[in-house]
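[INFO] parsing input record for Succinate dehydrogenase cytochrome b subunit
[DEBUG] input buffer:
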Amino acid sequence: MSWFSKTFTSTIGRKLLVAVTGLFLCSFLVVHLVGNLQLFKDDGGAAFNVYSHFMATNPIIRTMEIVLVLGFLFHIYEALVLTRRNKAARPTEYAYNRPQDNSNWSSRNMGLLGTVILVFLIIHLWNFFVPARFGGLEGVVVENVEYDNLYLKVVQSFEIWWYVLIYVLGMISLGYHLYHGFQSAFQTLGLNHKKYTPAIQTFGAFFSIVVPAAFASMPLYFFFKDLLN
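[DEBUG] output buffer:
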């Protein structure tokens, strides 16, 4: 086995992969959020449909989608392997165990949170990504150009209470997952410093609240808008 294989199949190597892919996925969340904020424009969905068309047809974006999928797969797989190794290393619980005394709830339940996020992601991709990439959407004309009306699909989905509930639960899980994962990634990368670590932790807490809350505001906005009309 080469040094490369040994490095990235070791526990430390796998933790590094989880950290790097996790931070990469955080950058994707920001980009995705900025684009989705087009939903709040009072233009009948024109800006969002143009944005969605650009994301679906730009060759650079399509290439990055492959990188993104690989990032998700590596992050999920390596996290699962680490979880199994940790359980194998301690097959039985201690007789006296008070984990809440030295760890927060999110750090002890990263597997559960990740599973909820994965389930949400599968439902979300099936509902939006598949129709957007493989057809099945109505057309709409924006400035004499016809686009797929993904905005209509979004509005219709966010008027369904159980889908909104799944979405919000997914974002709550994402928030807890980010709360521990963000600062843990920097720690794994060895970026610990008495001056900068508190700032990283503060920004991580801010990020884990604001980003999921912004995403969750979208289905809630359309659901209550429809409810009040």
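[INFO] Strands lie at 139-142, 145-148.
[INFO] shutting down worker
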